[in-house]
Specification:
Blueprint: E1 37-42, H1 47-52, H2 57-63, E2 67-73, H3 77-81, E3 89-92, H4 95-102, E4 105-111, H5 116-122, E5 126-135, E6 142-144, H6 150-155, H7 159-165, H8 170-177, H9 193-206, E7 215-218, H10 232-244, E8 250-253, H11 259-266, E9 272-273, H12 280-288, E10 292-295, H13 299-306, E11 310-315, E12 329-333, H14 358-372
Parallel strand pairs: 1-2, 1-4, 2-3, 4-5, 7-8, 7-10, 8-9, 10-11, 11-12
Antiparallel strand pairs: 5-6
Helix pairs in contact: 9-12, 10-11
Length: 382
């Protein structure tokens, strides 16, 4: 008689505690989900790009049925991905987590970053197939892992191709580079029910008993490219203009580094400042509590896309065609001839973030308002 025992190949099996799906680990368990393919995703940063790459989860699971997915990323994005129902294990790039990676062997590895660090993470484990990007072990130069990644790799080598010839969003480029079935899949983030309860509480508090959409203004961006954010004074001009046109439910969004700056922006205005001191998951909840988000090309933009918000996004140094707004937003390009440039610093006298007309911002906001209300809102934009 065949001996019955634990199903060690089940995606819920840990070997040291009950899985939470059944009292007894056996082949008869109704929740049994035996793994067919073990998958590793390496995407360390930037933070907004990691949020965007969650659009790959659905096509991965379409292609690889009964897959077990491990995702390695930099802190604090490991916190943002923690508990995601489509990700079985989230590891950070710290030393302790990389020790765990050394114990594992994967059928397929997806390396999304074009970076030597990402390839170094890959070298901490074993994978039978590698998609995305690797590195020359002699020079450290980044190379496509397969011919499918050649198009996305070539874009990084030519400003002409990246800035002007390419018309594909990054979500499509990534899916094709990884040989995944592209179906314009949405971003896929996850909050727990208690976090959604907090989202609803904030929305009630910020609505001010005024029957208007909540407009979040994301004021920050990565320090690596500071020209992705407006000045304090320009933020104040935008807010004053919206208030003059009777939009009242305005909230400032941002991270820890934006707290004092947001206080300066908000001074004297009847608007809200979200709490910026409680980490990335809390910040994501603040974005989720808004109806419309005004932002540069930053983490705040990608969170707004993930939560299906109306988006008004302005572009200066980066490429608008790379961002899919899923028909829920308006893109505004800075009115300067040198955009995009992808430069971390600039010597121009008039910066691109000073070249977005207030009228165009207001019109874009009211276009989003008109989609959220039953009529008449667009008239205020005149």
């Amino acid at each position: 008689m065949e001996k019955s025992g634990p199903v060690t190949g089940c995606r819920y099996f840990s070997g040291y505690r009950p899985c939470g799906h059944s009292e007894i680990c056996s082949p008869d368990c109704p929740s049994k989900d035996e793994i067919q393919t073990s998958i590793l995703i390496i995407h360390l940063g930037a933070q907004g790009a990691v949020v965007r790459s969650t659009s790959l989860l659905a096509p991965i699971r379409r292609k690889f049925h009964r897959a077990h997915i491990t995702w390695v990323t930099d802190a604090p994005m490991d916190q943002m991905l923690a508990g995601h129902p489509l990700i079985d294990r989230v590891l950070s790039s710290n030393h302790g987590d990389l020790l765990q990676l050394k114990a594992l062997h994967f059928d397929v590895a997806f390396v999304l970053d074009k970076s030597l660090r990402a390839y170094g993470v890959l070298k901490n484990t074993q994978a039978d197939q590698i998609h995305g990007f690797v590195a020359s072990e002699r020079t450290g130069g980044i190379l496509p892992a397969t011919p499918a990644a050649e198009e996305l790799w070539q874009l990084g080598l030519s400003n002409e191709r990246k800035f002007f010839q390419n018309q594909k969003p990054e979500t499509q480029l990534l899916a094709e580079a990884l040989e995944l079935p592209y179906q314009r899949d949405e971003y896929n983030l996850h909050l727990h029910e208690d976090e959604w309860s907090e989202v609803r509480r904030r929305a009630r508090a910020w609505r001010n008993d005024i029957d208007q959409p909540i407009i979040g203004i994301n004021t920050g961006c990565s320090s690596l490219m500071p020209a992705k954010k407006w000045t304090v004074e320009f933020h104040r001009q935008v807010i004053a203009d919206l208030l003059r046109h009777d939009l009242r439910n305005i909230v400032l969004l941002g991270g820890r580094e934006d707290r004092l700056r947001n206080q300066r922006i908000a001074a004297g205005f009847p608007i809200h400042c979200s709490n910026t001191d409680l980490g990335i998951r809390d910040g994501a909840q603040s974005v989720a509590a808004c109806d419309i988000v005004i932002t540069g090309d930053s983490l705040g933009l990608h969170l707004a896309i993930a939560w299906r918000k109306g988006v008004v996004v302005w572009f200066g140094p980066t490429c608008p065609q790379e961002i899919d707004l899923f028909d829920r937003g308006v893109s505004l390009q800075a009115e300067v001839s040198c955009c995009p440039c992808w430069q971390a610093s600039c010597r121009q006298v008039t910066m691109c973030y000073d070249r977005i007309p207030l009228e165009k911002i207001r019109q874009a906001v009211f276009k989003m308002v008109s989609k959220l209300t039953r009529g008449g809102a667009a008239a205020h934009a005149q």
